[in-house]
Design a protein that fits this description.
2 copies of one chain form a homodimer. Chain A has 8 helices and 12 strands. Chain A is an alpha/beta fold. Chain A is elongated and about 55 Å long. At the A-B interface, helix 4 and helix 5 of A face helix 4 and helix 5 of B. The first copy, chain A, binds a DNA duplex (30 and 30 nucleotides) through helix 6 and helix 8.
DNA sequence: TAAATTGCGTAACCTTTTCTTAATATGCGG
DNA sequence: CCGCATATTAAGAAAAGGTTACGCAATTTA
């Protein structure tokens, strides 16, 4: 089943739910990841970039709403689908969830068939909207999935950090990313690195891909330009 | 509200539902069309190409499921969002609806706030046409996100302080900003700088963007004028 | 498993740009 | 024509970023 390529992150603090939902989704051919609190969820999401995230609203550590907001802030996950799990009748949760950027909600108790149907419906849209896994900007082509970069049809191999950095900047050409933005997205929230680290990586990118593509905006940050 | 451009087709055979749902959607700024059976719905959909269609499942003439299937067959409406209205607990309807190509379902009894939230969530994805955050004033264009300024289509590069200053003044053309206002906003509350600093920056802006745009109001401050 | 390679972050130093100041000139309102 | 507020200018300080080389760690290769 070609669904194997489709990845769903399932987040709930109740192992039972994790199991039953996970089982059904797996049976439907999806690749399922799980986390038992919001913090782990955000971390995993950043790392694995799932196509759909199913979040329980009520959780310890970080509730679903907050997790959703966090995830929505990550540029690469902007298009990720998010659905909430909520007990029936919790209108408030549903509202807040939609405001936080949810695409759907699923009410407990969970009915496997309905669940799978909803998931399919959600992903159907994703599949049709997503022919463009390749981004081309000038003489540069970025294939996020394959972790490859082509410059004038020549393949350039970039180490992880450089790739992530390029990927971030290129995700919104023209937009200035502050150093903070960059640290946040490429290095992660908690990591602390020295002040010149970003520069060094930028330099390497410039070396390999051409100076002019990476514009410095002094006092602010960097941007990608075509 | 710019939602006026967004068009929703609402289909139900009960006038009450049509009215209450229609009212709420209209109040939320959407443009609402209605039909009271499946046949009319398909016809209207073909003609008006709404962005979202809300279909009651149970209807005379042609039920929602069939209408949905019909609509999905129309190439132009392939991407149209479809949501079903269904009584709670009708699992069968829900399943069939998803199979027919629905994107969501809404259960009766209808709660207006939830309804509007769901509609927003559904359309959010569609709405992702980005409204550029550009400010244009006469021959000048300011793009805060990209940190760019265009004068007669020529890009002018401005250092941070100059950009912030321009940005502030241009945020309310005509309004006079006192020196204090300016210090507050561009330099920040705690910073103390000499009395002539602002003048110097104004001068640089005048040099680069034209004298006439920055008017001195003696004893008070500066303003931007078109 | 050792050796070699590659990736990453840091420190030290260099270059450039940006900001501020200070000193002097100008000009408007009275 | 005076006085106060603003304009102008150049120069030096400070900030920001660029560059390079090095060491540790992870990864790959032998």
């Amino acid at each position: 089943m070609k669904n194997k390529e489709i990845c769903i992150l399932l987040v709930d603090d109740e192992p039972d739910i994790l199991e039953i939902v996970g089982y059904n989704l797996t049976a439907a051919g999806y690749n399922v990841l799980t986390a038992d609190n919001g913090k782990k969820a955000v971390k995993l999401a950043k790392k694995k970039k799932p196509h759909l995230i199913i979040l329980d609203v009520m959780m310890p550590e970080m509730d679903g709403i907050e997790a959703c907001e966090q995830i929505r802030k990550i540029p690469e996950l902007e298009k990720t689908l998010i659905a909430f799990l909520t007990a029936r009748g919790e209108d408030y949760s549903q509202m807040a969830g939609f405001d936080a950027g949810a695409d759907d909600y699923i009410t407990k108790p969970i009915k496997p068939k309905i669940l799978v149907s909803k998931v399919k419906a959600l992903l159907r849209r994703w599949e049709t909207e997503k022919p463009e896994e390749l981004v081309t900007l000038g003489n540069l082509t970025i294939d996020r999935e394959a972790y490859r970069v082509l410059l004038e049809k020549e393949e350039i191999s970039l180490p992880r950090k450089e790739f992530e950095l390029l990927s971030l900047l290129a995700s919104k050409p023209g937009k200035v990313f502050t150093r903070e933005d960059i640290l946040q997205n490429v290095w992660g929230n908690e990591v602390v690195v020295g002040g010149r680290t970003i520069d060094v990586h930028i330099r390497k990118l410039r070396e390999k891909l051409g100076d002019e593509k990476f514009r410095t905006v002094k006092g602010v940050g960097y941007k990608f330009s075509v």
